[in-house]
Automatic annotation (TrEMBL):
Gene3D superfamilies: P-loop containing nucleotide triphosphate hydrolases
Keyword ATP-binding: yes
InterPro entries: AAA+_ATPase, ABC_carbohydrate_import_ATPase, ABC_transporter-like_ATP-bd, ABC_transporter-like_CS, P-loop_NTPase
Name of the protein described by the UniProt record: ABC transporter ATP-binding protein
SMART domains the UniProt entry points to: AAA (SM00382)
Amino acid sequence: MRAPAIPPLSSGPTPLYGAYGIVKRFGDFTANDGIDLEIRAGEIHALLGENGAGKSTLMKILYGLLEPTEGVITHRGDVVRLPDPDSARRLGIGMVFQHFSLCENLTVAENIALVMPRALSGRALAARIAALAETYGLHLDPARPVWSLSAGERQRIEIVRCLLQDPRLVILDEPTSVLTSGEAETLFVVLERLRAEGRALLYISHRLDEVRRLCARATILRAGKVVGACDPRRESARSLAAMMVGAQVSALKPPAAAARAGERLRLERLALPAPGLHATDLRDVSLGVSGGEILGIAGIAGNGQAELFAALSGEVRAPEAEAVRIDGRAVGHLGINARRRLGAAFVPEERNGHAAAPGLSLSENAVLSRHATAPLTRFGLLRRRGARALAQAVIAAFDVRKAGPDPAAGTLSGGNLQKFVVGREILAEPGILVINQPTWGVDAAAAAHIRQALLDLAARGAAVLVISQDLDELFEIAGSVAVLHAGSLSRAMPRAETSRAAIGLLMGGSADPAGPPPALGAPAGRPEPAHAEVS
């Protein structure tokens, strides 16, 4: 017998999907506490809240990854049960995840085939992928292995995989967090088209200007409860942020000016052949970062950012030791641990699996990147108490929201895990910090906190290199900005002497008239990987 229908919360047509009285407990922790939410056909509905507010838990319930402790889900007013994602997909629910659920060693087509009917595979699936990607401007090569793709390209796989299922409801969890402005604009066109087709979209984003542009309704969560609703088009980004966190978000405070120290990080004509068929060669990259300085590196995803980070961190070693220098010492031949011993710290783009081990506890992750550095002796590295003390220091300093005293890193929301891995490195007081996409997936208050921490670290004499696709972020914190395009780096331009438009042109491949001559090519030798070490 069909379950009874539930009337909508307000007058109007029956919602396409609804969630009523949703409670989700994990032991003594309540992630969702009596949430009501209705999603109507033909609308883009925002779900807003600070990191740890319960958004991701609610989305997992709607997609069948979790079952609620209490409450019901409805489809066209009828109560339904979603015990697994297959059940959700059969009811027309698709999801684009913030954290990529992709198999590194499989191709684009093979990853998409994992959630498609068996009848659609091989050449037929590859043709569908190519046609859909061409239609929506989300270009993908079905034959490329996932490990060779940038974060932006991986996000496209998630979006295409969802759209191939012809969903009636599309849940998007931070869909533009790793996209460039151009890629985001393409996505917005796709979303508007889906809305015009009568589909419902549930949009989670900390980029509040996007929410104001796309969404006609917003539900706001705080501490697992619904605390308000609004029309985002009638709000400012600042007022939306205040609703999310319960207070106004403070503007960045310029730290007391520190005397510029000498150059602490130097790349000198670093040339590295791509480590894989679809990676990007680095072509005669030169840069210098002094103590007290923040240098921003802008660029469209896939132009060598991952390769540059690997060369800076020591995951891939340079053919010549002199190509990379830390405080004047040639380190191009050294790996990650040796560079950390010299006072360098690194935060990679991918927090799950690269910056943190999802299955390990926070205390274990707290020492994961410091196990070979001398300062850790004061924490009692091999003693559980010392590891927990270090983790608690990071949690307190960066307001990391968690369930339980020492949970696994993989149980944290994306934004809270980002705060943890960034805080872990900053609290080490490095002399050099290299950080890739520092505020990916964090809320407005957390982004401001991280950016302020980077400014303060530089003011204490550290050399900070920030790789980011967010031009607003770079123009807010960096003293100078350079652009990485097709593996070549432009000259660093003082922030006051350039503009977003000029940087955007360089990101698109326009020549830098004052920059270095174009590289003739990378050397034939291949770098030595440092596989055993962790960023």
